[in-house]
Amino acid sequence: NAGVMQNPRHLVRRRGQEARLRCSPMKGHSHVYWYRQLPEEGLKFMVYLQKENIIDESGMPKERFSAEFPKEGPSILRIQQVVRGDSAAYFCASSPYQATSTDTQYFGPGTRLTVL
Amino acid sequence: GESVGLHLPTLSVQEGDNSIINCAYSNSASDYFIWYKQESGKGPQFIIDIRSNMDKRQGQRVTVLLNKTVKHLSLQIAATQPGDSAVYFCAELFMDSSYKLIFGSGTRLLVRP
Fold it and tell me: Which of B44, B93, B106 faces A107 most closely, judged by CB atoms?
């Protein structure tokens, strides 16, 4: 069984460009979480989505960031007009249902975004 | 605001010794505390959790202790092995509408051969 897949694994963008990060959850999983990790820091929650719905976006910056999880296809985290401060590792986690137990959020390998 | 943090950024231990990684938290409302292991270039991997109404839980070579009085959490690894070298994070699970995880800042464990 394939785990959570994220692509690209590394992404380089110049300031002002757009970044699109993709997350394919594990088969059968309909819940997706996005987290951001700065170097030498812990992960910070950004957004929680179910298929076609944003459930909790309390960790998302108010501007330039958006996320979606369409009925078909991967979840997308989109960052418009990137700035250097957006450079980080972005992790996706998926679960088969609302994570009522603690070991059911499975993490992907992350996308390392570098903004030049 | 809520926060979860660690006392030691780096811990170096001899192979075969026991390791203790500590974590302090400030929010008393969480239902679970969880330890994750993150190897270089990978996502976090679940190790063990403990419910807030417990004070100790044991797994394979790992033990988690919770002291709610002083809001302190620790992870003990017995007979540390080179494969245990990684960054370890404690996290709280908020069982509200989103079940999101709140992570601490991490401790790097280095195992000397």
Answer: B44
What is the pLDDT confidence band of residue A20, given thresholds at 50, 70 and 90?
A: very high
Cis before A25 (ω within 30): no
Collapsing DSSP to helix, strand or coil, A79 comes out as: strand
CB atoms closer than 10 angstroms to residue A18: 11
Give Cα B61 distance to the centre of its chain: 14
Instruction: Say what the pLDDT of residue B105 is.
Output: 77
Burial B56-87, CB ≥16 within 10 A → b, else e: eeeeeebbbbbeeeeeebbbbbeebeeebbbb
Q: Contact A108/A2 with Cβ under 8 angstroms?
A: no
A27: which 2 tokens? Answer: 């088969």
Q: Which of B25, B100, B102, B105 to mutate to test the interface with A (most CBs of A within 10 A)?
A: B100
Mean pLDDT of chain A, nearest integer: 91
Instruction: Report CA-CA distances (Å) from A35 to A43, A57, B41, B47, B81.
Output: 6, 11, 15, 19, 29
- The residue ranking higher by pLDDT, A102 or B18, is B18
Chain A residue nearest residue B48, CA to CA: A103
- Rounded distance between C-alpha atoms, residue A9 and residue A113, angstroms: 8
Q: Tell me: the pLDDT tens digits for B60-85? A: 999 999 998 898 999 999 999 999 99
